[in-house]
Every structure is written in structure tokens, then in C-alpha cells.
């Protein structure tokens, strides 16, 4: 099974939670922190469960999510 990694630009995240609902593996959650703009950004609460499907990034209206995937054997895809 592929292994994924999610990076979220918390500085620009508005905490709309669309990505939280889009994630089929329930990797993302709204954090308890508050960013400089006063929003609670999303975090990868279950980062080890990410498979790199990219649905969160496609759903994000502000394009603050980057998804990376590693195939078996360690090579980045």
C-alpha cells in the first residue's frame, strides 16, 4: 500500500474543514491551535494513515495542502 504525507500551510488555512470531510482515511482534523489570522488550522492528526490520495488537496479552496506519495520501495512518485 502506498504511503502518503500531507503538508498544510497553517499560516493560510482558514479551518473550513472541507478537507477533513473529504479524507477517506480520517487523517486530518481541526487543530486546537490558532494561526495569525485567528483561524484554527487543519493538522494531520493521523499522519501514519495517509495513503497520498490527494482528495484533501483537491478539496481545499485555498490550495494550502500539498500531498506527497511514496510507492513501495521508497521512491517518491
Could you give the topology of this structure?
Layout: E1 3-8, H1 18-22, E2 28-30, E3 42-44, H2 55-59, E4 65-70
Antiparallel strand pairs: 1-4, 2-3
The helix fraction, in percent, is: 10-25%
Report the uncertain regions.
Answer: none
Q: Would you report the number of β strands? A: 4
Rounded to an integer in angstroms, the radius of gyration calculated over CA atoms is 12 Å
In spatial order, strands of the major sheet run: 1-4
Shape: elongated
Largest sheet: 2 strands, antiparallel
Q: For the residues shown, what is the average pLDDT?
A: 93
Strand content: 15-25%
Number of helices: 2
Distance between the termini: 13 Å
Order of helical and strand elements: EHEEHE
Q: Characteristics of this structure?
A:
77 residues, iron-sulfur, two-stranded antiparallel sheet, single chain, metal ion binding, 4 iron, 4 sulfur cluster binding
Could you please describe the fold and organization of this structure?
- GO terms for molecular function: 4 iron, 4 sulfur cluster binding; metal ion binding.
- This is 4Fe-4S binding protein.
- Residues 4-33, 40-70 form the 4Fe-4S ferredoxin-type domain.
- Pfam families: Fer4_7 (PF12838).
- By secondary structure, the chain is of the alpha+beta class.
- 13% of the residues lie in helices and 23% in strands.
- It is built from 2 helices and 4 strands.
- It has helices at 18-22, 55-59; strands at residues 3-8, 28-30, 42-44, 65-70.
- The strands form 2 sheets. Strands 1-4 form a two-stranded antiparallel ribbon. Strands 2-3 form a two-stranded antiparallel ribbon.
- The longest helix has 5 residues, at 18-22.
- The model has no long low-confidence stretch (mean pLDDT 93).
Amino acid at each position: 500500500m502506498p504511503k502518503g504525507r500531507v503538508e498544510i500551510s497553517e499560516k493560510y488555512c482558514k479551518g473550513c474543514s472541507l478537507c477533513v470531510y473529504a479524507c477517506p482515511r480520517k487523517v486530518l482534523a481541526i487543530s486546537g491551535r490558532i494561526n495569525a489570522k485567528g483561524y484554527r488550522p487543519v493538522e494531520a492528526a493521523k499522519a501514519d494513515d495517509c495513503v497520498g490520495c490527494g482528495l484533501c488537496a483537491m478539496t481545499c479552496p485555498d490550495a494550502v495542502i500539498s500531498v506527497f506519495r511514496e510507492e513501495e520501495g521508497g521512491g517518491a512518485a
